[in-house]
Amino acid sequence: MLTRGLLFLIEALFAKPVSTGNCAVQMNLLLSVMVHIRKSIFSLPVPRLLLVSFGIASLLLFPSGPIHAQDETTIAEAKPTAENVAKAEQILLRGIETVGGSNYLNVKTVLGRGFYTAFLDGMSQLPARFVDYIAFPDRERTEFFSSGIRTVQTNVGDTGWFYDGATKSLHDMKPEQIQDFKRGMRTSTENLLHGWWRKEGATLSYVGRREAGLAKRNEVVRLTYPDGFWIEYEFGAKDGLPAKMIYKRTKKNPDSEETVETAEEDRLAKPITIAGVTAAWVIDHFINGVQTSRVNYESIEYNKPLADVLFAKPANIKALK
């Protein structure tokens, strides 16, 4: 399972990320204060991880923007007729069974450790170590480590806080950062498989089969929210495993101030089964077809007790656990 915060955190934490015009200046600054990212996939996402050395992902080129309704003509490709919905629900149920069935649905906490690697112009940069704590449905804490500096990002529902080990500062998250976390939750496979989307009035539909490599096909379902935001989830036609998530979002280009639409996707690989739960241990994030990051897990533990103090904002830096 992947953190909701891992793949989306950079844009959430920096209001003006690196642009083509000030890359060198911003690079030196970020090297001294740590750089992070956000979103997840299997959770989360991710969320959203710190970038070390010159690991500035290309996703930094566009700051985060609000969730907007997507092209209605695209959504119309998979109208949720009764037969269509039944097919989508069948794929969803198969997906739940392939990742562990009741074992998967009964997971309450996840403790993951691994490395995050940013990609710049298609080239991988130096990896950074992370530890991620998740308590379902909406609590997550991700710790980043580099050069002896520790940085912590924590989200709890509609609140969140951030500790910057480089500047020794503790801050509440801004509303736009909370929104980014919620978007990560919306686009996670956990949201789809656990059915949390039903409470938000989203609709499930079947899109069809899609090419997924040599002699491979993926079954595609789509979640569409009342505000028009949609996410497509791909499942292997043969093995039924979650394989990819695709969605679009609008962002501002920092060089032109123009609003642009980007296509983002998470590709899941290296499925490993532990305690009857199967999860992808490698997650690659792409923006407009260009890879911007990779999350690679070293270990994942399920249902390990996590103390509430991990998610509570400390009274001061000395009280930070």
Description:
This protein is α+β, with helices and mostly antiparallel strands. It has a single domain (6-300), classed as Lipoprotein localisation LolA/LolB/LppX (outer membrane lipoprotein receptor (LolB), chain A, Clam). The protein has seven helices and 17 strands. A hairpin with a 5-residue loop joins β13 (230-236) and β14. The radius of gyration is 19 Å and the shape is globular.
What's a quick, concise take on this entry?
This protein has 321 residues and is of the alpha+beta class. The chain has seven helices and 17 strands. The longest helix is centred in the first third of the chain and has 17 residues.
> How much strand?
35-45%
The averaged pLDDT comes out at 80
What is the terminal-to-terminal distance? 24 Å
CATH class call: Mainly Beta
Q: Specify the CATH architecture.
A: Clam
CATH domain topology: outer membrane lipoprotein receptor (LolB), chain A
Class based on secondary structure composition and strand pairing: alpha+beta
- Stretches where pLDDT is under 50 for at least 5 consecutive residues are 1-69, 71-78
What is the string of SSEs from the N terminus onward?
EHHEEHHHEEEEEEEHHEEEEEEE
Proportion of residues in helical segments: 10-25%
The structural domain count equals 1
The radius of gyration is 19 Å
Shape: globular
Q: Count of DSSP E strands?
A: 17
What's the helix count?
A: 7
CATH superfamily: Lipoprotein localisation LolA/LolB/LppX
- What characterizes the major β-sheet? 14 strands, antiparallel
